[in-house]
Design goal:
The complex is a heterodimer of chains A (362) and B (254).
Chain A lengths: L4 E4 H11 L2 E6 L7 H12 L3 E4 L3 H12 L4 E6 L1 H16 L5 E6 L15 H5 L10 E3 L4 H18 L3 E6 H5 L1 E4 L28 E2 L8 H19 L3 E4 L6 E4 L2 H16 L4 E6 L1 E3 L3 H8 L4 E6 L5 H9 L5 E5 L8 H14 L9
Parallel strand pairs in A: 2-3, 2-4, 4-5, 5-7, 6-7, 11-12, 11-14, 14-15
Antiparallel strand pairs in A: 1-8, 6-13, 10-12
Chain B lengths: L23 H15 L5 E5 L7 H4 L3 E4 L5 H11 L4 E7 H7 L1 H9 L5 E6 L29 H4 L5 H5 L5 E8 L3 H19 L4 E7 L3 H4 L3 H15 L3 E4 L12
Parallel strand pairs in B: 1-2, 1-3, 3-4, 4-6, 5-6
Antiparallel strand pairs in B: 5-7
Helix pairs in contact in B: 1-8, 4-5
Classes of the chains: A alpha/beta (362), B alpha/beta (254).
Chain lengths: 362, 254
């Protein structure tokens, strides 16, 4: 804590997880997240943990399933196609209430796509991704500083509510270097309380079982509804977002991660012209900051959502503001990155159009 | 009154769901007796598969985990690396281990993970209702090869012990059968030795147990036993394929 460091996003993410107490990592090479398993391959044994280069992403997530069941803080990482492969295992972890932590340093898709940063995995991240009725706690860092400091928060939320947690970054955040400071004291995993569900030596207690199935009639519904209670608590308590100059804004830009950085540049251009433009940056993508956006909708003329996808988060923004004001989209997809100038051009057009009707309702 | 036998402590006192004539009950007992005799029940974690033995997490009286189809050795790897003092076994059928989980099987063996795999080969899918397994014999009927397995269409059955014996990471590999009392006793020795291999920290051990599935073979329990001895054993020769104690490979047609 305290030292100013210069790190690559992927390295910061890895070091942040180790400092947060992670002592098991399994992963498989895929660009643009290769620095994570490379870093963990020496850092994990140095910290007294285990590192495995798995034979596949499928094996890696299942190694985590076993490792996490022992109560340890665990991590896997990948990029878009690899995260698709992990979805079966993530679903099992959700069904078995295991608090795994994983990161998606996303790239352009679908398919093999490309290796540039992209935000096309939003739906996959916030709508479940794997099969079944479950949720994942999703944090979207916007800087190397956040790449390094979000893993701890993911562990804490995951363990408190017993849900999988993830960092949704992208190739830009993974590959760029920035100064950062770890803002928390290093966690000593020996001092963490062993959960009462952890597998291991059973001397002096009853056997424990970790499983995601329940075949007796009605039992799975009871388990799922219990989980739904926890999801509700997360939605009430764990929402995170950042606002910049939204108080007097006529137009608010809504963006996360790398596209929020482009928006900050556009906002600067706009403010220099005297245009009242705010920036709303969701930090948790699930739970989504619905309430804050709805409140904002009562005060602004319109929103402009900026995404590095065909437009996915815009659905959540529209649901949040209940079509009370127009919600516009500026989208670059498949690894393309919006520039501050492009966004500035469009926000001027949107401001000119004024409040008007909701675009999807008219 | 002299009690000559009892339920092993490593088996829970619950009713099992297995069909009459199924080999899982015997195999469970062999694993449980081995855990009892080696005194490791309280530090053992078992991995239950997807398939008929999915409920093994209710049957074994030790910590248990049930995971995705075929991923047992990967789950066991995570458990063992985090709890090196625990004894970790993965219990799997032929579809689980030799079809969907082949990659996890081969790579955990290749890494020489210090885990024990109990592989039940009954040449058919059980839970899903008699589909062709990777170990289904040529000519054997299954619901997805109703005319019998045709190598030109369905390929050939796979011999797992022979395949794994090529890997340097394996320390103990033996194929046994449970088609007679004498073979059950031999199978017990193999299962216990596989656990001992892990306890002594020697590396990957796997015991393949040829077993019966009268329900999905569509024959009586007695005929299923005969099928194992007359049809399966010639295809899957019994014997030791890898021995950490340097024992000579004694693969024989039994």
């Amino acid at each position: 804590m305290g030292d100013k460091l210069l790190m690559k996003g992927n390295d910061a993410l890895s070091e942040g997880a180790v400092r947060a107490g992670c002592r098991f990592f399994a992963g498989y090479p895929i660009t643009p997240q290769n620095e994570v398993p490379e870093y963990m391959s020496w850092r994990m044994p140095q910290a007294g943990g285990a590192f495995i280069q798995a034979e596949s992403e499928v094996a890696a997530i299942n190694m985590l399933y076993g490792a996490c069941a022992t109560g340890k803080r665990t991590m896997t990482s990948s990029s878009s196609p690899g995260i698709s492969l992990k979805q079966e295992g993530i679903s099992y972890c959700a069904g078995a209430d295991l608090p795994i932590f994983f990161a998606n340093v996303a790239r352009g898709g679908p398919g093999l796509g490309n290796i540039a940063g992209a935000q096309g995995d939003y739906f996959q991240s916030v709508r479940g991704g794997g099969h079944g009725d479950y949720r994942t706690f999703v944090m979207a860092p916007g800087s190397v500083q956040e790449m390094g400091n979000f893993p701890l928060h993911c562990y804490e939320v995951a363990e408190k509510y017993r849900v999988p947690a993830m960092v949704l970054a992208d190739g830009v955040l993974g590959q760029m270097m920035e100064p950062l400071e770890f803002t928390f004291p290093e966690v000593d995993p020996q001092k963490l309380r062993e959960p009462d569900w952890a597998l291991g030596a059973s001397t002096g207690r009853k056997k424990r079982a970790v499983r995601s199935y329940a075949l007796a009639e009605g039992k799975l519904e009871i388990m799922t509804l219990d989980r739904a209670q926890r999801y509700k608590q997360i939605e009430e308590r764990e929402v995170m977002f950042e606002t910049r100059q939204c108080d007097d804004a006529d137009l608010v830009l809504v963006a996360y991660g790398t596209s929020a950085r482009a928006c900050a540049a556009a906002q600067k251009l706009a403010r220099a012209e005297g245009l009242k433009v705010g920036l709303f940056r969701p930090i948790t993508l699930w739970p989504f900051p619905k309430k804050a956006l709805l409140e904002l909708a009562g005060r602004v003329d319109s929103f402009l959502v900026v995404e590095m996808s065909l437009g996915q988060m815009i659905d959540d923004v529209k649901l949040a503001v209940e079509c009370s004001v127009p919600v516009h989209l500026h989208a670059r997809c498949a690894g393309a990155i919006p520039t501050g100038e492009d966004i500035f051009q469009q926000l001027q057009a949107v401001l000119k159009a004024g409040k008007g009707e909701c675009i999807c309702c008219k | 009154m002299l009690q000559v036998n009892r339920r092993p402590e490593s088996l829970c006192d619950v009713k099992m769901h297995y069909c009459p004539g199924c080999g899982h009950g015997i195999a469970h007992r062999l694993v449980a007796e081995s855990m009892d005799e080696l005194g490791v029940r309280e530090r053992t974690i078992g991995v239950a598969p997807v398939g008929c033995a999915v409920f093994a997490d209710d049957y074994f009286n030790c910590d248990m985990i049930q995971g995705p189809h075929g991923r047992g050795p990967a789950i066991a790897t995570g458990l063992k690396r985090c709890k090196p003092d625990c004894i970790v076994f993965s219990y799997q059928g032929d579809g689980d281990l030799a079809s969907i989980g082949m990659a996890e099987t081969i790579h955990s063996a290749g890494r020489g993970e210090n885990i024990t795999v109990i592989f039940i080969n009954n040449a058919i899918y059980g839970m899903t209702g008699g589909q062709m397994a990777p170990t289904t014999l040529v000519g054997q009927k299954a619901t997805t090869c109703p005319q019998g397995r045709d190598p030109l269409v369905n390929g050939y059955p796979m011999r797992i012990c022979e395949l794994l014996s090529q890997l340097d990471g394996t320390r103990y590999l033996e194929r046994v059968s449970i088609h007679s009392a004498a073979h059950v006793i031999k199978a017990k020795r193999a299962v216990k030795k596989a656990f001992r291999c892990q306890i002594e920290g020697r590396g990957f051990s796997l015991v393949e147990i040829l077993s019966t599935c009268p329900t999905n073979m569509g024959i009586s329990p007695l005929d299923a036993v005969k099928f194992v001895s007359d049809q399966m054993v010639p295809q899957y020769p019994l014997g030791v394929f890898k021995d950490f104690e340097g024992g000579k490979s004694d693969v024989s047609r039994d």
